[in-house]
Design brief:
10-stranded mixed beta sheet, 13 helices, globular, 3-stranded antiparallel beta sheet
């Protein structure tokens, strides 16, 4: 039986995957390496927060493109995790008899593929926005099909699910795509061959059993036991990545599994039997909230009322076409009886997406601690950073930015629980 899983955390941010996995089992999930770098920023605050909490791992604060193959090959990582940027995954070329892919310059998914080629981990756990499965607009699902094709060529299988954290007992209505990837030589993968009748598509029943009952996400995040509106599809991926880039014509729904180049995907709904955490259980008592988060400026209050209200505007496109832009209204302030809305990196600024509270007739923004709670981080997780060996405080604006970029760590905790079980069955 394995005693632990060595983990490499890519695009680490302030450590959301690590927090979740360590909450699952700190002794089993051993994060030995991490990479975090924000190319558009001079200061690397997220990396410094990560360093503050986890000084004992090999933390690499440079562009992932600059990490050498030799460095990756030196890592005995059993699992790679990361929340990678959502970009255009189109492929420039694909050479025969080798992966040889050149995606669009700067697309960081190809760096994950490079790491996989160098390390050959047993598992990967990735996170992305839910629109990944629908991108790009003109060829919906193509980008994800490219990813599946690349992973299939490296002899991996894939399971995915879009999870709304609030539907599974969390404090935020945050929908994200979670992707569990596992190597084809593992017992877990070979067990699927038995269920899938050696990959001959004789019946949907074998796939349904995995997606509804026995798969990782089905085990930890139960769903209604039939496809929503009977939406389902099979698709056989092309052998070459460039073909997926140029010719993909399938469908990708919010749940699916890919094995040996064939995927089955269905649209699913949560069971709805887990109560979310309402905002009223997240907010701090008034006496704990610093005065700077309260808003008394009538002009700013009026601005929020306008931004959150319904509106119609006449606009002109780049080619001179005039059209009417319409936007529906929101509640004037956030409902404290509901879980929080999806938090963005602009949280705390005067914009429509910002959480806007009215408690005891006082208007205010949420605090950094409340933002951390919405993502199930410990209180004040982002308060300090380590800069040249010295402890420094992080600005409120950066703390909000971190949480807008982060994930709900309790979702990762639950996924980690199941990965541990799967890994223990390998030995």
């Amino acid at each position: 039986m394995s005693k632990s899983i060595n983990v490499l955390e890519l695009f680490a941010g302030v450590g959301g995957f690590r927090v979740g996995l360590e909450n699952s089992d700190k002794n089993y999930f051993n994060t030995k390496w991490a990479n975090q770098f924000e190319p558009s920023r001079k200061s690397q605050d997220a990396f410094e927060v990560y360093n503050y909490h986890f000084p004992d791992s090999d933390n690499i604060g440079k562009d992932i493109n600059e990490i050498s193959d030799d460095k990756f090959k030196s890592m005995d990582a059993d699992m790679i995790v990361g929340g990678f940027p959502c970009q255009d995954y189109s492929v420039a070329r694909s050479t025969k008899n080798e992966l040889g892919i050149n995606g669009k310059k700067g697309v960081l998914f190809w760096q994950i593929i490079r790491a996989v080629q160098d390390i050959h981990p047993k598992y990967l756990l990735l996170e992305n926005v839910d629109r990944l499965l629908k991108a790009p607009t003109k060829q919906r699902g193509r980008d994800f099909a490219i990813m599946l094709t690349a992973l299939n060529k490296l002899n991996y299988s894939v399971e995915w699910r879009v999870i709304n954290a609030a539907e599974y007992g969390q404090a935020q209505r945050r929908r994200r795509t979670y992707i569990f990837i596992f190597r084809n030589d593992l017992k877990y993968a070979q067990k699927l061959d038995e269920e899938f009748e050696n990959d001959v598509l004789k019946s949907e029943d074998t796939y349904d059993k995995y997606l509804f009952k026995t798969g990782l996400f089905a085990s930890e995040f139960p769903i209604q036991q039939k496809p929503y509106k009977n939406r389902k599809a099979f698709y056989e991926l092309p052998s070459e990545i460039a073909d997926a880039s140029d010719n993909f014509s399938g469908k990708v729904f919010n749940t699916g599994v890919m094995r040996n180049g064939v995927y089955y995907t269905i649209d699913t709904k949560a069971l709805g039997n887990e109560k979310p955490i309402p905002l009223k259980d997240v907010v701090q008592p008034e006496e704990e909230v610093p005065e700077k988060f309260f808003v008394n400026d009538e002009e700013k209050i009026a601005k929020f009322a306008y931004l959150r209200g319904p509106k119609k505007k006449e606009r002109t496109s780049a080619d001179g076409h005039t059209y009417t832009y319409s936007e529906g209204g929101m509640a004037p302030t956030d409902d404290l009886s509901l879980p929080g809305r999806t938090m963005l990196t602009s949280e705390g600024s005067v914009n429509r997406s910002t959480h806007w509270l009215k408690i005891n007739d006082k208007y205010r923004f949420i605090t950094p601690i409340e933002a951390e709670r919405l993502q199930s981080f410990p209180d004040d997780w982002t308060k300090y950073k380590l800069v040249n060996g010295q402890k420094e405080e992080v600005t409120d604006r950066m703390r909000m930015f971190f949480m807008g970029n982060a994930l709900v760590t309790n979702v990762i905790k639950r996924i980690g629980d199941r990965i541990k079980e799967i890994d223990q069955e390998e030995n």
